[in-house]
Fold this protein.
Amino acid sequence: MMKQIALIGTSHKYQKEDKDCSKQDVQAFKDFLEKACRVYNIRTVAEEMSEQALEEAHRNNSIPQQAAKALSLKHLFCDPDGERRALLGIEYETAIDVEVFFDRVSCDEAKRRKCESRTKRELYWLERLQTVPESEWPVLFICGADHVKSFKGILEDNGFSVETIADDWSP
């Protein structure tokens, strides 16, 4: 049986309830996620997020995590923390941008390194999803809008059935 994933792209500000995000926008995102979970019979909510990223944002939980809890569904953080990123050779895009700013690397080299790191991250998400037991499928996956197309391709190349619900959700 092919594992099914419903994919939602958005801005991370909605995932973490950033200070520039209104309470109404956050509630709209949570409502959207809960509706998607019901429509697609979701059993696990997974996301491009790590506990470390939430701690650094001074948040106890993410909006997808809250939606999963409200519906009594499993939740899975899929993004590597800083230590795991270092082990996997995944660079932060902002760090690469700083190198470009100070003329330490060319724009072409920066683009290559960003693409390589992005692919490594998405393959890590795939590994995390492959740990989800059969009984906890289908999965709703929330990621940054700039990952939707490439991550969907990786998922489909690895035998998953993927439906994109939103390329770039916003209220």
User: Anything to note?
Assistant: The chain is about 50% helix and 20% strand. Residues 4-84+134-169 form a domain with the Cobalt-precorrin-4 Transmethylase; domain 1 fold (CATH 3.40.1010). Strands lie at 4-10, 44-47, 74-77, 139-144, 161-169. The first strand starts at residue 4 and ends at 10.
